[in-house]
Design goal:
Largest sheet: 7 strands, mixed
Number of helices: 9
Order of helices and strands: EEEEEEHHEHEHEHEHEHEEEEHH
CATH architecture of the largest domain: 3-Layer(aba) Sandwich
Mean pLDDT: 87
Strand order of the largest sheet: 9-8-7-10-11-15-12
Distance between the termini: 56 Å
Helix content: 25-40%
GO molecular function: tRNA (adenine(57)-N1)/(adenine(58)-N1)-methyltransferase activity; tRNA (adenine(58)-N1)-methyltransferase activity
Enzyme class: transferase
Number of strands: 15
Protein name: tRNA (Adenine57-N1/adenine58-N1)-methyltransferase
CATH class of the largest domain: Alpha Beta
CATH superfamily of the largest domain: Vaccinia Virus protein VP39
Shape: globular
EC number: 2.1.1.219, 2.1.1.220
Strand content: 15-25%
Organism: Arthrobacter stackebrandtii
CATH topology of the largest domain: Rossmann fold
Oligomer: single chain
Radius of gyration: 23 Å
Length: about 350
């Protein structure tokens, strides 16, 4: 068996997941009733509850998985948060891609180490984190976002979980369909991941930058978005027949012989659809499916965030989330060395 070189540099962020707890990192505390809280370790401070307090210094330097006691004997189990825990509790300005969907995107989109990937609709950076873990230090992820505030939140969250800027990540501001063809060479991208309102508007841009055989995966919220994207792909002819699905996760209650499904579950969050780029000059096979691609004028004019049920996010909330994400990075002493994200070009929404 090949021995690992102990002097070789660890993949980016790996050292954040190993060894004893350090000042500035996040720790998940679970009490004796199973309630969880996440704290950021700060020397000389304490975690306070209605059942006493727990000194952070008891955790700093202790091994992961230890049990510590508060001043009144309350016991806590201490572990580093998993990626799924971090995503659901991190500062956000937009709805995040749930872990169950991120896992499907990585696997069904065949995101592999070293892949060259572009994504659009960065939101709060949840999917960006999963994509960066998949492509690794030697891969490439170029994220496109229309709003400066979302880019700031995503940058803070990515740098928090990786302990600083990731060497494979680039983030740009602007409309995906315009910027990706200006910044990426034709046929140079292995995978395209779109989490946006109207992915069919990006069809030409995707076909331009995606290599033959490359995978395009879309994440959309509604049946109407799914339908229109599928019909646009079929009509274009440069892609394979699209496949679509959704995933639902139901937990189980485990206690002795009382083993049963939980009363609540994570049901519909979004639809996923995958298609692949055909070679230049090739037209996709006619799979003999009946297809009606007509949409009424009312349908075509209804694609706004409010019309499909997305809640409006105030500028104040975005600024607060960006400050929270940035402050977590600075607490760990890992402020970004790179340049700032350029100001977003003015555009209509």
């Amino acid at each position: 068996m090949k021995q690992q070189d102990p002097t070789a540099a660890a993949p980016h962020g790996a050292d954040q997941r190993r060894g004893p707890f350090r000042a500035g990192e996040r720790v998940q505390l679970t009490d004796e009733r199973g309630r969880m809280n996440t704290i950021t370790l700060t020397p000389g401070t304490a975690y306070h509850t209605h059942k006493g307090f727990l000194n952070h210094d008891l955790l700093i330097g202790s091994p992961e998985g230890c049990i510590v006691e508060s001043n009144v004997g309350q016991q806590y189990q201490a572990l580093r948060p998993l990626l799924s825990d971090f995503v659901l509790s991190m500062p956000r300005g937009a709805a995040v891609v749930y872990p169950k969907d991120a896992g499907q995107i990585i696997t069904m989109g065949d995101i592999y180490p070293g892949a060259r990937v572009v994504e659009a609709g960065v939101g709060s950076g949840a999917l960006s984190i999963s994509l960066l873990r998949a492509v690794g230090d030697d891969g490439y992820l170029h994220s496109f976002e229309r709003r400066q505030e979302f880019a700031d939140i995503a940058r803070g969250n990515v740098e928090t979980i990786f302990g600083g800027p990731h060497p494979a990540w680039k983030i740009s501001l602007g409309d995906f369909q315009d910027e990706v063809v200006a910044q990426e060479a034709p046929g140079s991208i292995d995978r395209v991941v779109l989490d946006m309102l109207a992915p069919w508007e990006c069809l030409d841009a995707v076909a331009t930058v995606l290599a033959p055989g490359g995978v395009w995966i879309n994440y959309v919220a509604t049946v109407t978005q799914l339908s229109r994207t599928a019909e646009a792909i079929r009509a274009d002819g440069r892609f394979t027949e699209p496949d679509a699905w959704e995933s639902m996760v139901r937990g189980w209650h485990l206690e002795g012989l009382a083993v049963r499904p939980d009363h609540r579950m994570v049901a519909h969050t979004g639809f996923l659809m995958v298609t692949r780029r055909l070679a230049d000059g090739v037209t996709g096979l006619n799979l003999k499916k009946k297809s009606k691609g007509e949409f009424s004028a009312e349908d075509l004019n209804a694609w706004t965030p409010e019309a499909v049920g997305e809640p409006a996010v105030s500028d104040r909330k975005l600024r607060r989330a960006a400050r929270d994400a940035s402050s977590t990075v600075q607490t760990k002493g890992t402020k970004s060395k790179g340049g700032e994200v350029p100001a977003a070009p003015e555009q209509g929404h």
